[in-house]
Amino acid sequence: MKKTIDVKTVRDGLWMDTNVTYAQVPGWLGNTTRDLKLTVIRHFQNDSDKRYPVIFWFAGGGWMDTDNNVHLPNLVDFAHDGYILVGVEYRDSNKVQFPGQLEDAKAAIRYVRANADRYQADPDRFVAMGESAGGHMVSMLGVTNGHREFDKGDHLDVSSDVQVVVPFYGVVDPLTAKEGSATDDFDFVYRNLLGAEPEDAPELDRAANPLSYIDQQTVPFLILHGTKDMVVPLKDSEQLYDKLIENQVPADMYILNGAGHMDAQFLQPQVFEIIKNFLAKHL
């Protein structure tokens, strides 16, 4: 069979930049230097002046292991709908304790904002989205705009602020996450993150708890959680939602019936449409 067809261009092609170094941090026992990497999915440059909102993705892994590419294939729908996607590597708790992870996240945001022209990014429309431990990360980003004590490293002349956050089944308070989990298999991750058991170190726990920072400057939140999550308690996300509303912060929460932790339900078109509509409203 041989045919000549007309093809209508209805979406951009996409490029993917991998292994982009956004920061250099202490490496082996503080005696070496290691790179932190980004993966950036961006658009064919058809219009040199066009700028796109950016979604920064933070994968989970209990702060013990992370892969900045792990969910990008599932999230490419957002790129086709007009976003830049940035998968962010951050240090695990074997390398640094909190707030090192938050410092890494803010460094990644500053790097992309400082290089907005290179990556076609709209620096006024940055979204932080992540799952589980990465969900905790984005919640912390959403409540610490302007907290300069977490800005470390390069590009300190630009802001690390984000405009919207979307935590998927994110950890909120390390203490209540540990105490409220349906399994004790992951209790150790909170000790590793904080450097102490959260019940024995209330100041460390408070510092790593997004609820400690919420005020009327907090950015809009879209919270996603499943009713069958055996790792991170649903009630913690509900408490986060309630405190946001109490402080008059725009927030929506969607509870996925029957969804477990890291469930494929969260990656379905129905859920992505909810996210896209929320972002369209608040960016």
Automatic annotation (TrEMBL):
<feature type="domain" description="BD-FAE-like">
    <location>
        <begin position="46"/>
        <end position="244"/>
    </location>
</feature>
<dbReference type="InterPro" id="IPR050300">
    <property type="entry name" value="GDXG_lipolytic_enzyme"/>
</dbReference>
<protein>
    <submittedName>
        <fullName>Alpha/beta hydrolase</fullName>
    </submittedName>
</protein>
<dbReference type="InterPro" id="IPR029058">
    <property type="entry name" value="AB_hydrolase_fold"/>
</dbReference>
<dbReference type="InterPro" id="IPR049492">
    <property type="entry name" value="BD-FAE-like_dom"/>
</dbReference>
<dbReference type="GO" id="GO:0016787">
    <property type="term" value="F:hydrolase activity"/>
</dbReference>
<keyword id="KW-0378">Hydrolase</keyword>
<dbReference type="Pfam" id="PF20434">
    <property type="entry name" value="BD-FAE"/>
</dbReference>
